[in-house]
Amino acid sequence: MFNIKHTLEQLLSDALAQASGLADARGNVIYSTRPEFGDYQANGVMAIAKQLKTNPRELAGRVLECLPENALIARAEVAGPGFINLFLKDAYLAQQGEEFAREGVALLQPSASAQTIVVDYSSPNLAKEMHVGHLRGTIIGDCLVRVLEACGHHVIRQNHVGDWGTQFGMLIAHMESLRAQGDALTTDLADLESFYRAAKQRFDDEPGFADTARGYVVRLQQGDPACLAAWQTFIDESLAHCEAVYARLGVTLQRADLKPESFYNPELPGIIAQLERAGLLSVSEGARCVFMEEFKGKEGALLPTIVQKSDGGYLYATTDLAAIQYRAGSLKADRVLYVVDARQSLHFQQVFAIARKAGFAPAACSLEHIAYGTMMGEDGKPFKTRSGDTVKLIDLLEESVRRAHDIVSEKNPDLDEASRQEIASVVGIAAVKYADLSKNRTSDYIFDWNTMLSFEGNTAPYMLYAYARIMSILRRQDDSAAPANAALLLEATEERSLLLKILQFQETVQVVANEGYPNTLCTYLYELAGVFMRFYEACPVLKAEGALRDSRLSLVALTAKTLNTGLDLLGLKTLQQM
RNA sequence: GGGGGUAUAGCUCAGCUGGAUAGAGCAACGGCCUUCUAAGCCGUGGGUCUCAGGUUCGAAUCCUGAUACUCCCGCCA
Length: 578
Fold this sequence. Notes:
Low-confidence stretches: none
Mean pLDDT: 93
Strand order of the largest sheet: 1-2-4-3
Distance between the termini: 35 Å
Strand content: 5-15%
Shape: globular
Number of strands: 13
CATH class of the domain at 264-372: Alpha Beta
């Protein structure tokens, strides 16, 4: 595992522990805030000095004395009130860069302690077509899954689709009545959204229809074969819609990753029984609930989590508990990540707490809600069409590609139509995904076509353009290619900055793997592209000669490798030319 | 009523969990192409980090309170 920051943290923490006599002292190494403060800086001394009531600068001096000889630090100096500024050795950077430039050497090395990590993401409701509300979870989840796999973890994707519940009775009832009229259904099901609306309208308005629908729910739950067959037809159709969206988005979810709600149906009575045995269950107003001290409502009254309705039906809390048991037990997960809307935060707190108390998940199994905010329209309100309808995800993606096509046609009219289509399709999808991934997932964000499709700033088009420019240099080197083992020369500051940035790739990816914030990776890649552009302006590559040319070409190739790997982790396709 | 979240430049957003002079991009203004893709680079201006207190060597970050917006809280998922 290659991680400069981590190595420095280790060195400084040890030295600080030795100098202070506190075993758990933390060096607190971060990137230096300004170039003259070195490459990294350790901020931990001041906190410890405060604790010991000693002079921080003096303690920092002793830390430097305790710092052992090592391969990477050229110079460490005390600065300001007690910072330690760290300057890395050029020779060390060059040597590491040369190693990563070698043929077949991966930029990312597997984590020392590989874990089994279940990631629950996307999970649309199959009663309707995927809409913009499913975008963030699908994209963020897919990015995290790629990152975790790249770090060497055993990742199990779980697409917890909604395929059960009362609304399916309504849909089947509508389906069956159309079929009874001799309707082949294919055209009706092609647009699930209007199919759902039609069924809903009959449910609300048509006398007797609601009862028919409820009858179907009962038959479905009893396993009536004809009813199940109709249900299956509908589910297959709906899944086909989802898969079309996944294919367009370049999302890695497969059929094998499906673990629908209905999968847990047989387990639900057992879940209730286990809650009962654990003494967690009480009956309130006819419903079976779990009350916990941690969750209080008005006037200190405990807040219920309903696990079984008064009519005997189960709720999604029950299903989620069964899923936890399956993931922690059968799948033996070390971590379970739920990439789900932030509005469900209370629900997950409750479900996680119940799972702990009932023993569905051992303490060693980490349950994490990877929450994300809502996508807003340009008016700052939830994203809708002008008429107030929800926007189908597939329509949004197609519009993005169309807009990208217009821009590409305008900027590069000489390209043939096929190339423009190809570029537009990559840029259009990348723009939507990158706009989402580049923002801190916990806050709501405003969806804006102009910003995301702009070629300036932290956007997908800029990143793809930067990559295409880099590839253009490598294409032009022709037969005078640099050897893969070229020595790296760090004479210009731009060369050194570029290399250091490249070497920080793995530490960035690890932070994303641990904390689940894809925007950290986007920021890194954007900065990498920026550092490269400065190098590109200052350091001629193909016009340089001899060892310098080889060195620069090697840096270009390394940048390309890093950018390509990073964009792939985000789930973005790249282009050789734009 | 109770609980959660958010509030940073005109706009869209970062800010590595308490560090040095709060950063990007857009928009505005100015400079750089017969030279590896100018879809780029460099520079200038722009801030009471919502408000009021507190904690300490040091606060956008932690604590308390207030205001605004937003989400969640018994039989949908």
